[in-house]
């Protein structure tokens, strides 16, 4: 068990820090959180800077245009960029963490050449069209139909909760190509250009007041067969490659940020007197233990991936279950410390508290994660 | 960075598990419950295996290993519910004659409590005015000591946390096994989500405690150790409670081992840094 970093790893960290200190002052001003086109421009400008410096697609294989970095280097990258206050992956999320890796793993050479470089350069952004009104946790129940017509699929149906749909260029879309097959075997993965005729995007307002996700209606949208990644009806397997990425290192930067939030919260508590309440103080102490352990769990999972050299596995479910709960506890505790100020929408912590409510739902609810842990790790029988 | 067990550490862990399977299996555990007392032969066997001398330098007759190896051994001890003042004797190796070899059983005053006072050959700390209490744990005799709590040695806190971790891992395993085997309504009770989710949460708490304990052993940092104890206490106590629940009526019996895990976990949670003290320490570090 070794928690120290090797000389190469430290050299990588030093190089990254040096670059960050030069690059961050050149960022354009932060856009208003409600200005989605502005946020897209900001996020992609950052991605372009990473690209020019050779940090884009760090964890992608070299064959896909990435740098083939080790899981530990990726961890260092996520830790250092967060500590330096660099922007989040933001609108580039799906391209870099879902669609891109899927295309890298399952696409043809032509598909990789078409779609991967623009993701790395920040030229194009992707959204994820998986969930439907009647297919959430039971994703395989999706019904959006794709019917073959010559060299095209004709797609009709609707998607929901599609993050960044309004500003995306592409959508990784799951469609049903064989309605008669068992539900997991009739699904196909398509790259949908978001400017195709027949697409209507209707923004949905979240409880935090912003329009970060949308409904996407598809009315006889023609998608070239050439945009299919993987075989027809093999989309479920192709998708599982993507989801396992989602549950991997996606929260590293956030854990670092939560630890900083906690330290700031202790300061506030000392200043406003709530520190003298032993219940509040001890809760802050407990959260200190919690987020330290979550950081160690990240290092444990990354080391495991590094040894296995593979895709982060179901261990990510253990992390997600604990982390999403801890994050909500953190902001609930913040509210205890802030008192009436926690009701003020002009405080960042209030918005963070609101957005933390999605963590036990998005990317597989906590109940679904518990099913995964119980069935795939503990080997308990599948329920009905 | 390589935060995973080395092959040597795995071998050490497996060796300890084998030793305990041979010398302190379930039958021995249940026999000990009926006839409480310290098994001196077992204590010497632990000494011979290097359990107490593990962290003593080799030129002082020790094994020359560190805290990371020690937590692996204490985790196994916790899993098997091995009784006795293991932590105190381990800490006394090198300082009290015969502790390292297992000839001398050492106990140590911990705040208002001391365990195994009547059986120990040597007592560290001031046990004046000790009065026995009828211990909730049949395998941990306890005395109350008047006076205030003193600061705990961080190693004692960490090794106790490692025992809690072992117990949490064991109760998770017991619950899962029972949930697979016991059928009701024509199916294993483990196929019911309410049961399944209890088991999943037990595993999550155990694995979080595991990385906390292992990392604290590597860094030796007192605050990280406090966090590890806090999380391991929770994993052990709640793990035993949920395991009891999964066992149904059987879980409430003397015959099932679940209550032994729960009672020991309660004792350990009170020993060597309570949750309140750990939380205060961790808050002060912010
Ligand atoms: C902020 C946010 C962003 C999102 N972004 C995207 C996106 O970009 N693209 C996309 O495709 N999707 C996205 N989603 C959708 C998300 O993946 C789904 O909301 C999620 O999978 C749950 O599906 P659902 O909303 O239909 O809830 P349901 O599946 O209807 O669940 C309702 C309740 O029932 C429980 N439940 C359901 N099935 C089971 C079961 N088998 N066992 C136990 N309990 C069960 C759930 O845990 C939940 O409590 C996003 C969601 C949020 C909140």
Features:
A: 384 residues, Butyryl-CoA Dehydrogenase, subunit A, domain 2, Butyryl-CoA Dehydrogenase, subunit A, domain 3, four-stranded mixed beta sheet, 11 helices, B: mainly alpha, two-stranded parallel ribbon, 10 helices, 7 strands, 56% helix, globular, binds flavin-adenine dinucleotide
Write the SSE topology.
The complex is a heterodimer of chains A (384) and B (286).
Chain A: H1 7-23, H2 36-53, H3 71-83, H4 93-106, H5 109-121, E1 126-129, E2 145-149, E3 152-163, E4 170-176, E5 187-193, E6 199-204, E7 213-224, E8 228-229, H6 235-246, H7 252-272, H8 278-308, H9 315-338, H10 348-356, H11 366-377
Parallel strand pairs in A: 1-4
Antiparallel strand pairs in A: 2-3, 3-7, 4-5, 5-8, 6-7
Chain B: H1 7-23, H2 26-34, H3 40-48, H4 67-80, H5 86-92, E1 106-108, E2 113-115, E3 122-124, E4 131-133, E5 142-144, H6 154-181, E6 183-184, E7 187-188, H7 193-219, H8 222-246, H9 258-270, H10 275-284
Parallel strand pairs in B: 1-3
Antiparallel strand pairs in B: 2-5, 4-5, 6-7
Question: Could you explain the architecture of this structure?
Answer:
The complex is a heterodimer of chains A (384) and B (286). By secondary structure, chain A is of the alpha+beta class. Chain A folds into three domains: 7-88, no CATH class; 127-232, Butyryl-CoA Dehydrogenase, subunit A, domain 2 (Beta Barrel), CATH 2.40.110; 251-377, Up-down Bundle (Butyryl-CoA Dehydrogenase, subunit A, domain 3). Chain A contains eleven helices and eight strands. Chain A has helices at residues 7-23, 36-53, 71-83, 93-106, 109-121, 235-246, 252-272, 278-308, 315-338, 348-356, 366-377; strands at residues 126-129, 145-149, 152-163, 170-176, 187-193, 199-204, 213-224, 228-229. In chain A, the strands form two sheets. Chain A has a four-stranded mixed sheet with strand order 1-4-5-8. In chain A, helix 1 packs parallel to helix 3 (71-83), helix 4 (93-106) packs across helix 6 and helix 7 (252-272) runs parallel beside helix 9. The longest helix of chain A has 31 residues, at 278-308. Chain A starts with 6 loop residues before the first helix and ends in a 7-residue tail after the last helix. The model of chain A has no long low-confidence stretch (mean pLDDT 93). Chain B is mainly α and 286 residues long. Chain B contains ten helices and seven strands. Chain B is globular and about 60 Å long. Chain B has helices spanning 7-23, 26-34, 40-48, 67-80, 86-92, 154-181, 193-219, 222-246, 258-270, 275-284, and strands at residues 106-108, 113-115, 122-124, 131-133, 142-144, 183-184, 187-188. In chain B, the strands form three sheets. A three-stranded antiparallel sheet of chain B has the order 2-5-4, with no helix packed on it. Chain B has a two-stranded parallel ribbon with strand order 1-3. In chain B, strands 6-7 form a two-stranded antiparallel ribbon. Helix content of chain B is 56%, strand content 7%. Chain B has two domains: 7-106, Butyryl-Coa Dehydrogenase, subunit A, domain 1 (Orthogonal Bundle), CATH 1.10.540; 154-284, Up-down Bundle (Butyryl-CoA Dehydrogenase, subunit A, domain 3), CATH 1.20.140.10. In chain B, helix 4 (67-80) crosses helix 6, helix 6 (154-181) packs antiparallel against helix 9 (258-270) and helix 7 packs antiparallel against helix 8. The interface between A and B is large, with 51 and 52 residues. The site of flavin-adenine dinucleotide (FAD) has 19 residues of chain A, from strand 1, strand 3 and helix 11. Residues 127-128, 130-131, 136-137, 161-163, 213, 358, 361-365, 367-368, 371 of chain A line the site of flavin-adenine dinucleotide.
């Amino acid at each position: 068990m070794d928690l120290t970093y090797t000389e190469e790893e430290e050299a990588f960290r030093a190089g990254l820090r040096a670059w960050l200190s030069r690059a961050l002052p050149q960022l354009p001003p932060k856009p208003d959180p409600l200005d989605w086109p502005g946020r897209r421009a900001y996020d992609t400008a950052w991605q372009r800077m990473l690209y020019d410096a050779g940090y884009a697609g760090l964890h992608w294989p070299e064959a896909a245009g990435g740098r083939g970095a080790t899981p530990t280097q990726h961890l260092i990258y996520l830790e250092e960029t967060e500590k330096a206050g660099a922007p989040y992956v933001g609108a580039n999320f799906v391209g870099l963490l879902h669609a891109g890796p899927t295309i890298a793993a399952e696409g043809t050479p032509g598909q990789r050449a078409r779609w991967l470089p623009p993701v790395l350069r920040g030229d194009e952004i992707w959204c994820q069209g998986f969930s439907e009104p009647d297919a959430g946790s039971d994703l395989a129940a999706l019904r959006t139909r794709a019917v073959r017509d010559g060299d095209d699929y004709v797609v009709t149906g609707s998607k929901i909760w599609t993050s960044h749909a309004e500003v995306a260029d592409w959508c990784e879309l799951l469609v049903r190509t064989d309605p008669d097959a068992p539900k997991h075997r009739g699904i196909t993965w398509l790259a949908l250009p978001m400017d195709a005729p027949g697409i209507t995007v209707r923004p949905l307002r979240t409880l935090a007041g912003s329009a970060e996700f949308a409904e996407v209606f598809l009315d006889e949208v023609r998608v070239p067969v050439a945009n299919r990644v993987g075989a027809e009806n093999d989309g479920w397997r192709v998708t599982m490659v993507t989801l396992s990425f989602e549950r991997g290192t996606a929260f590293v930067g956030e854990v670092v940020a939560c630890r900083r939030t906690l330290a700031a919260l202790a300061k506030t508590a000392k200043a406003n007197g709530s520190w003298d309440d032993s219940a509040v103080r001890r809760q802050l102490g407990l959260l200190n233990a919690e987020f330290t352990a979550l950081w160690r769990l990240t290092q444990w999972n990354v080391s495991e991936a590094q040894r296995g050299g593979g895709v982060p596995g179901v261990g990510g479910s253990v992390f997600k279950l604990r982390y999403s709960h801890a994050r909500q506890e953190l902001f609930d505790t913040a509210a205890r410390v802030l008192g009436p100020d926690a009701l003020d929408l002009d405080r960042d912590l209030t918005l963070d508290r609101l957005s933390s409510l999605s963590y036990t739902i998005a990317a597989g609810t906590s109940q679904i994660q518990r099913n995964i842990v119980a069935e795939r790790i503990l080997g308990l029988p599948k329920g009905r | 960075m390589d935060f995973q067990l080395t092959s040597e550490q795995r071998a050490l862990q497996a060796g300890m598990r084998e030793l305990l399977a041979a010398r302190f299996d379930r039958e021995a555990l249940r026999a000990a419950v009926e006839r409480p007392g310290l098994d001196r032969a077992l204590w010497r066997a632990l000494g011979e295996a290097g359990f107490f001398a593990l962290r003593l330098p080799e030129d002082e007759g020790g094994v020359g290993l560190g805290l990371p190896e020690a937590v692996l051994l204490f985790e196994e001890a916790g899993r098997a519910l091995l009784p006795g003042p293991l932590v105190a004797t381990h800490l006394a190796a090198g300082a009290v004659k015969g502790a390292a070899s297992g000839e001398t059983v050492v106990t140590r005053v911990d705040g208002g409590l001391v365990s195994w006072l009547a059986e120990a050959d040597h007592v560290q700390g001031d046990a004046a005015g000790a009065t026995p209490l009828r211990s909730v744990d049949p395998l941990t005799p306890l005395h109350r000591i008047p006076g205030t709590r003193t600061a705990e040695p961080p190693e004692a806190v960490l090794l106790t946390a490692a025992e809690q971790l072992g117990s949490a891992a064991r109760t998770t395993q017991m619950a899962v096994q029972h949930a697979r085997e016991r059928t009701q309504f024509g199916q294993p009770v483990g196929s019911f989500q309410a049961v399944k989710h209890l088991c999943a949460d037990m595993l999550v708490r155990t694995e979080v405690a595991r990385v906390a304990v292992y990392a604290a052993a590597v860094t030796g940092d007192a605050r990280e150790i406090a966090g590890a104890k806090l999380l391991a206490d929770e994993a052990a106590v709640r793990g035993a409670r949920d395991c009891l629940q999964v066992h149904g009526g059987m879980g409430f019996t003397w015959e099932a081992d679940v209550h032994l895990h729960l009672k020991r976990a309660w004792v350990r949670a009170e020993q060597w840094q309570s949750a309140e003290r750990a939380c205060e320490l961790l808050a002060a570090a912010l």
